Amino acid sequence: PRRPIGSFLFLGPTGVGKTELARALAAFLLDDEARIVRLDMSEYMERHEVSKMIGAPPGYIGYGEGGQLTEKVRRNPYSVVLLDEVEKAHPDVFNMLLQILEDGQLTDAQGRTVSFRNTILIGTSNLGTETLSPDKRPIGFIQSAMPDYQEARQLVMREVKRFFKPEFLNRLDDIIVFHYLEQEDVLQIARMFVDELVERMHSRDIELEVDDAVIEKLARDGFDPVYGARPLRREVEHQVENPLAMKIVNGACPVHSRVRIRLLENTVHIDIIS
In what order do the strands lie in the sheet with 80-84? Predict the structure, then answer.
């Protein structure tokens, strides 16, 4: 087939892991999460900005530099192409995307044909996801705390079909709707961040033990219904990573140390055991 390997639209509120899933796909399928070509589509809202994707035409400033999309894919033909906030792009961008989805290629300003046949194309959007919060639900839909997947998809797709043209939606392999994160999800993400830290410390010959109560506190402090899991990483850095880094820099936590991180009177404490 001439089309890209896969093409998806990820829909969901901010901070629920749409970009993270794209990175995970790159890591799993291409063995390197850095193999991701990421474009912020809010930079292509005006018609004159669209040409930046394929490069400036002859006689214009920047001709010969290559396009921000085409040049990156030409240099990394096996990659995940992530178009963040795709709904903000100018309508002319969608004409380019239709060409990629249909023919698996795009011609840049220098006349070179760039193949997208070995890429996975992912657009992200939070279009329609405000309807998932109970107070914004349209009449006729159950006003429960969280809709099930089918109801959530139905709610979001109503908005999506109003916004995107059918010829764009019909060429996508799948449209995936992400739920708002709940406290249990955030707890799992906090555990994942802490596990990553334990692994990093282990590679430096420092044995780290983190109490469950600490992880639960991080999940509580880092949970925001509006911003999803975004504040969580900041909490892990602020409450655990930065104080631990200071102890390492000060020499209080040398190589081969055993460290226990626990909760004392609702404050995170770092104890150097040995």
Answer: 36-40, 80-84, 120-125, 6-11, 174-177
Give the domain CATH number at 244.
Answer: 1.10.8.60
Look-up of token digits 């150097």? 272
Rounded to 5°, angle at Cα 69 from 64 and 112: 50
In a domain, 164, yes or no: yes
Residue 96 domain-assigned (yes or no)? yes
Tell me the two tokens of residue 258.
Answer: 């055993």
Domain identity same for 59 and 85:
yes
Range(s) of the domain holding residue 168: 6-177
pLDDT tens for the 274 residues of the chain, in order: 689 999 999 998 888 999 999 999 999 999 988 899 999 999 999 998 888 999 877 666 666 677 899 999 999 999 999 999 999 999 999 999 999 999 999 998 888 999 999 999 999 998 987 766 655 555 554 445 556 778 778 888 899 999 999 999 999 999 999 887 888 899 999 999 999 999 999 999 999 999 999 999 999 999 887 778 889 999 999 999 999 999 999 999 999 999 999 999 999 999 998 8
**Beta strands per DSSP E along 77-117:** 80-84, 105-107, 113-115
Q: Is residue 1 part of a domain?
A: no
Give the pTM: 0.82
Beta strands in the chain (DSSP E): 6-11, 36-40, 80-84, 105-107, 113-115, 120-125, 174-177, 207-210, 258-264, 267-272
Q: What is the CATH number of the domain that holds 146?
A: 3.40.50.300
- Number of domains the chain is built from: 2
